[in-house]
């Protein structure tokens, strides 16, 4: 299954609030991607389900943070999930609608987790994500993340 198809399936499950199926999909090929990456995918798409009003997703996120992601001491996995979601909400990636308010929320969550300052090459990663954004999206990004050189 392509990444695009996978994102589409995750989004459909998040929209429907089918959280058990969402988690099953995240862990389906765990031997190929590893437990932490599977938990990171589950975390990301549960955050989308929460964004869409499925409050029970918050409880499952807490379970991930105290379970499979408990060793994510530097919040790399959760921070990266929020980064991906922010960029997706800014650009319409992962089949998500452009939503600047959601993007701001995820950028703030990313920063709360110390991401990307905990990542080698984090500034470069931010610049690469920022460069192709439309001007309105870049302005939202820059509200939360100071542009390079500031």
Per the principal axes of the C-alpha atoms, what is the gross shape?
globular
Which structural class best describes the helix and strand composition? mainly alpha
Q: From the alpha-carbon coordinates, what is the Rg to the nearest angstrom?
A: 15 Å
Report the total helices: 9
Taken together, the total number of domains comes to: 2
Tell me about the biggest sheet?
none
How many DSSP-defined strands? 0
What is the N-to-C order of secondary-structure elements (H for helix, E for strand)? HHHHHHHHH
**Poorly predicted runs of 5 or more residues:** none
Helix content: 55-70%
Mean pLDDT, all residues: 92
**CA(first)-CA(last) distance:** 41 Å
Strand percent estimate: under 5%
Write up this protein.
This protein is mainly alpha-helical. It has two domains: 71 residues; 69 residues. Helix 2 packs antiparallel against helix 4. The longest helix is centred in the first third of the chain and has 17 residues. It is globular and about 40 Å long.
What secondary-structure arrangement, pairings included, does this model have?
Layout: H1 3-16, H2 19-27, H3 30-33, H4 35-51, H5 56-66, H6 76-91, H7 100-112, H8 122-130, H9 135-144
Helix pairs in contact: 1-2, 1-4, 2-4, 4-5, 4-6, 6-7, 7-9
Short description:
About 70% of the residues lie in helices and about 0% in strands. With about 150 residues, the chain is mostly helical.
What keyword list fits this structure?
150 residues, mainly alpha, 2 domains, 69% helix
């Amino acid at each position: 299954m392509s990444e695009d198809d996978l994102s589409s399936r995750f989004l459909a499950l998040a929209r429907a609030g089918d959280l058990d199926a969402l988690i099953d999909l995240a862990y389906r090929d765990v031997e190929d991607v590893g437990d932490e990456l599977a938990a990171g995918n589950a975390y990301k798409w549960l955050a989308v389900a929460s964004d869409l009003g499925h409050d029970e997703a918050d409880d499952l996120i807490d379970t991930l943070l105290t379970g499979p992601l408990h060793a994510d001491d530097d919040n790399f996995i959760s921070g990266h999930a929020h980064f991906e979601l922010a960029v997706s909400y800014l650009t319409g990636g992962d089949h998500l609608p452009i939503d600047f308010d959601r993007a701001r929320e995820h950028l703030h969550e990313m920063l709360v987790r110390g991401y990307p300052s905990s990542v080698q090459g984090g500034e470069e990663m931010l610049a690469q994500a920022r460069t192709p954004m439309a001007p309105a999206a870049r302005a939202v990004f820059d509200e939360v993340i100071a542009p390079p050189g500031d």
